[in-house]
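Side project, low priority. Logging it here so it doesn't get lost.
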Amino acid sequence: MHHVLVNSPVGAEATMLLPRVETMVPVLYFALFAMSFDFISGYTGYLSFGHAAFYGTGAYFVVLVTNGKVPFVPSGTPYVVLLLLAGVVAAVLALAIGAVSFRLTGVYFAMITLGFAQVLYVLVRNWSYVGSNPRDGVFVDTMDGLNVGVPGVDALNLAIGQLTGDEVSLAFVQLSATEVSYYVVGLVVLGCYFAMQRILHSPFGRVMVAIRENEERAVAVGYDTFRYKLGAFAISAFFAAVAGGLLAGYQRSVSPEESFYFLVAGDALLAAIIGGFGTLAGPLYGHLFSETIKEFLSKAASGGGLLPYLREHLGEGLMTTELYGGMTVGTSIETFLNGHASLYVGALFVLFVLFVPNGLLGTVRDRLGGPVAKRLPAHVRRYL
């Protein structure tokens, strides 16, 4: 679909507006992390500011096992199995952290989880066992691609990665390594999303919502809310670690700043607020929205985005037209657009908090009167 639009008469506009495939793959695995954050924070009301601890655990576990540095787990372990094991390790870590943290509520819970994450961040940055220069991160030593599929069946496996991923050629369809990674990572993220949705629609998920709405009442009717919160925390950590494992598998490297650092959880919170807190799918749309804006306002001199589009289509005469005090149209565009994407995303975040408090998906749900999947078909039939 992207290729069709790019090669159409509106190809330049499509290139400017649509995110690139290289952008979409990180959007997918980080969106899974943001959804895992929303699973615990949006559905129980307990903000986990240290959720990056589980994202980093999954990423580092995959890289260290692949490099043969984890005892009892051979380096040749299939990548899919590594994702599951990373999730289990993170879930166990979440049980340990949650056993202490859930003794507290509100801002105190948020701060103690942040403290645990920062302890792990400092540990990994200074632990020489993980790599020769742990502050800069670690890399996968082998050049073999990490395969997603059915372990042991070559025909049902595809390697992901920008350089080591598989390419697919079927009839008239040819997919590059990045495009293959996009579809394969997307399938993993979709499967994790459906798994979390099933849990949320189970009796366990109903208790999570009851805790969010009124924990004291949930306790009064006989629920052991501590155990439910601990279970939800472990489940969210499992999927956060899977997301971290996808990061490591695709990039074939991981650093403390992009995994364990507390601002990683801040980005997940940003995605959840923009997309819709307590909607699960909302963080995907929220992160896609913010990353699309960043790419649209990117300072890149080539490729998609508003700045290259204006440079190409405004013309030399208009670009050199003086506006005021020697400032031309071209220099004003460079001044206000070049390198300021994060500034505009921050302004959009403030606007969302003020005027769209329920986020993108939450607002759509409010307008439709319920979940989009249930209400949208009825609204479409009404206007047909």
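Brief comment: The first strand starts at residue 138 and ends at 139.
Revisit when time allows.
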